[in-house]
Amino acid sequence: MKNVLENIRTRLSTITEFNYTGEDWGQLNADAAAAPEFPCCLFNISKASYNDLGKDPGQTPKNRQSGSFRLKLNIADQGAENRSLSWAEHILMEKVHQALHGFSPTEKCSPLKRKNYKRLKRSNGLIIYKVIYTFEVTNV
Prior knowledge:
Layout: H1 2-12, E1 20-23, E2 40-55, E3 63-77, H2 88-100, E4 113-121, E5 127-138
Parallel strand pairs: 1-2
Antiparallel strand pairs: 2-3, 3-5, 4-5
């Protein structure tokens, strides 16, 4: 999964409007000193399920599996409520979609497909768009 996350980060880093792109380890929930520069795109694999495909003695590991994964992105911008009708987050979401939808992070991965998104506005004014992509991996 490390290669998958690294390749997704590389792909997202082409979006120059983000001041920070990286793995989500709770920066938006920590104190202000840990917060990244905005706008930012934080991501992680938030859910996975596996299916057993059997054994292949010629492979390592011998037990073969396929997996279905959920990639969660948090697109956040502080102070977005002060920009009337700029649609900045929607522009960022579209750029993320252009970069990720149909992109296969490794040769064993299916292309990423956007599944849904949700808008959250926190009491501190931070607006976060949670965007979900799904993909599958074989022989994991």
